[in-house]
């Protein structure tokens, strides 16, 4: 949207300072009130804590959004429509949303196969039961609605637009701005040590470092998609989808909590323990074939993701031009 020939309207130091301020504005309210601050007897997953945090973070995001909108309109002399476009709020980009979800589903083909086929959840997906169950709790509401929306508004929409205004290169934006996103999750280390006081320091620290790593890597991907598509809803839905899938299994055998096979076979096996044709082995674990199938699907999905990364993020309304075909 903003070409290199245009002059930067804010400095890189200003963009960095605002990014730090927005990160603190997002996280600090969690610890300023007894209603949002976890303790050894009050988990961050308690419904009262989740509700209070959603209220605080909504206020923080609203304040940061107004501040960024003012900065864009006043320094870049952008019209309201140009401001919304730079923030990725308009147009919605329905086609971009569909392609981004398809691309993300390729990366998570393994977990989708494990949940849908191995664990036989595909019936619940068709009936919409899985969606209802996911959103019927405050944890689900936080993980799939409030968290993805507020985090993507701040760490993708606002921070990316600020760094575009200072004319940081797209590649540097992709790899730099997600660090704020990763750092914003480090406070979970403190919360984990509060609620798990008997866990040794090294495993707790390692857990937080792993969380920082995968949130940063996801941030790289989300920022890439955001710059390429110019659609905030696309990355919000991709974020929610990734939260639902969880980290892909990278080692170990695939297991399932339900019998795999035709319904009548499963029922017969339950009743008399014979049920020939069941795909579960005698000790209650699935046959090795399911594990082989999972890793084949996982690898194929990763291969397809790599080869469609640029094609499925192509858009007529990118926020920055880079990569194959960027000179067109």
Structural notes for this entry:
- This protein has 328 residues and is mostly helical.
- The chain has helices at 12-27, 47-75, 80-87, 94-107, 109-118, 122-127, 129-135, 138-165, 170-183, 187-195, 201-229, 232-245, 263-272, 288-308.
- The longest helix has 29 residues, at 47-75.
- It is globular, with a radius of gyration of 22 Å.
**Radius of gyration, whole Å:** 22 Å
- The arrangement of helices and strands along the chain is HHHHHHHHHHHHHH
Structural class: mainly alpha
The count of DSSP E runs of length 2 or more, i.e. the number of strands, is 0
Q: Report the principal-axis shape.
A: globular
The average pLDDT value, as a whole number, equals 89
Distance between the termini: 14 Å
- The level of helicity is 55-70%
Beta-strand content estimate: under 5%
The description of the largest β-sheet is: none
Are there runs of 5+ residues with pLDDT below 50, and where? 258-284
Question: How many H/I helices?
Answer: 14
What's a concise summary of this model?
The protein has 328 residues and is mainly alpha-helical. It has helices spanning 12-27, 47-75, 80-87, 94-107, 109-118, 122-127, 129-135, 138-165, 170-183, 187-195, 201-229, 232-245, 263-272, 288-308.
């Amino acid at each position: 949207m903003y070409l290199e020939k245009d002059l930067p309207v804010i400095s890189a130091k200003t963009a960095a300072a605002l990014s730090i301020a927005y990160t603190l504005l997002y996280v600090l309210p969690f610890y300023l009130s007894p209603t949002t601050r976890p303790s050894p007897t009050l988990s961050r997953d308690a419904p009262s804590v989740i509700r209070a945090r959603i209220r605080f973070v909504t206020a923080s995001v609203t304040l940061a959004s107004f501040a960024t909108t003012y900065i864009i309109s006043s320094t870049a002399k952008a019209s309201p429509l140009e401001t919304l476009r730079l923030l990725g709020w308009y147009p919605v980009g329905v086609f971009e949303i569909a392609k981004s979800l398809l691309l993300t589903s390729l990366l998570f083909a393994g977990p989708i196969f494990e949940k849908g086929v191995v664990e036989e959840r595909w019936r619940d997906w068709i009936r919409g039961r899985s969606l209802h169950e996911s959103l019927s709790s405050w944890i689900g509401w936080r993980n799939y609605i409030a968290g993805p929306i507020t985090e993507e508004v701040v760490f993708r929409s606002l921070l990316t637009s600020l760094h575009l205004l200072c004319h940081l290169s797209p590649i540097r934006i992709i790899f730099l701005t997600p660090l704020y996103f990763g750092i914003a999750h480090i406070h979970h280390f403190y919360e984990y040590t509060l609620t798990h006081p008997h866990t040794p320091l090294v495993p707790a620290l390692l857990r937080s470092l792993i969380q920082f790593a995968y949130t940063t890597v996801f941030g790289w991907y989300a920022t890439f998609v955001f710059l390429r598509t110019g659609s905030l809803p696309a990355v919000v839905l991709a974020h929610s989808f990734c939260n639902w899938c969880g980290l892909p299994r990278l080692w170990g055998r695939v297991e399932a909590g339900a019998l795999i096979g035709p319904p009548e076979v499963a029922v017969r096996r339950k009743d008399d323990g014979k049920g020939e044709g069941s795909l579960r082995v005698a000790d209650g674990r699935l046959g090795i074939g399911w594990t082989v199938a999972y890793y084949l699907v996982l690898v194929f999905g990763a291969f397809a993701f790599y080869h469609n990364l640029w094609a499925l993020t192509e858009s007529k309304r990118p926020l920055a031009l880079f990569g194959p075909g960027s000179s067109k």
